[in-house]
Amino acid sequence: MPAVLAPLRIAYYSLAIAICCAAIGSAGEFNPTLNIGDAAPAWEKLPGVDGKEHSLADLDAKLPVVVVFICNSCDVAADYEDRIIAFAEKHQDETAVVAICASAKPADALPRLRERAEARKFPFIYLHDKSQQIGQAYGANYTPEFFLLSAGKPEVRRIVYMGAMDDSTYADQVKSNYLEPALAALLAGDEPTTKETAPRGCRIKYPRKRE
Predict the structure, then answer these.
(1) Looking at the predicted structure, is the pLDDT value of residue 14 above 80?
(2) How do 125-128 and 46-47 pair as beta strands?
């Protein structure tokens, strides 16, 4: 290599590394915390409506995971319950569905979540994030808000898709579903065509950070 080109090549590689590193851990288009391809935040010993404690590590590493943030107090989340139930039942052998409530409202306390889950016969794991740490780790600001995680042990699971389940709050007005094709692409070993969309629903209120 000519001596004059060596510094240029070193500078090029340094710039490429800097760009790559800057992209890692950056926020997504609609998510303030996570980007597509980021490591999926793991939860440990979150209480479930079944009276047990659950961790991400408990799930089958061979299956992808769909995480959805919901709650009792949001009418939009309630409107999506039938769709989430249908999705979980349809894909019970292909993916694990985990619902998490990160709302701090009294209506979303664990006993109330348990009542709702029993009444609706939720066919998925439903966890209570009382500390709101998992909700904030995922950058989840709305209910419902969906995250598709790749298969693997907790330390290798990645964010494959995040955002809305579909394009309408009203089931009879849905024209495009985003979660279904994202899962289909993942199961086929491909990347989803649509990787991130804007979530809709009720805002999750988190404590204000002190400056």
Answers:
(1) no
(2) unpaired
The DSSP annotation for 177-198 comes to: BSHHHHHHHHHTT---S--B--
Which residues, at least 6 apart from 175, have a Cβ–Cβ distance to it below 8 Å?
Answer: 167, 168
Name, in order, each residue with C-beta under 8 angstroms of 87's C-beta and a sequence gap of 6 or more.
66, 97, 165, 179, 180
Provide the 3-class DSSP secondary structure of residue 96. strand
Predicted model pTM: 0.87
Residue of 138, 143, 142 whose CA lies nearest to 161: 138
Closest CA to 146 of 54, 64, 53, 61: 64
**pLDDT tens digits, 138-174:** 999 999 999 999 999 999 999 999 999 999 999 999 9
Q: Which residues contact 77 (CB under 8 A, 6 or more apart)?
A: 70, 71, 143, 144, 201, 202
What confidence tens digit (pLDDT) does each residue in 70-128 have? 999 999 999 999 999 999 999 999 999 999 999 999 999 999 999 999 999 999 999 99
- Kindly report, residue by residue over 115-135, the tens digit of the pLDDT: 999 999 999 999 999 999 999
Has residue 21 got a pLDDT over 80?
no
Identify the structural domains of the chain with CATH numbers, from first to last.
37-203 (3.40.30.10)
User: With contact defined as beta carbons under 8 Å apart, do 168 and 174 qualify?
Assistant: yes
Q: Which two tokens stand for residue 162?
A: 């995040």
**Other Cβ atoms closer than 10 A to 57:** 12
Q: Are 34 and 138 in contact (CB under 8 A)?
A: yes
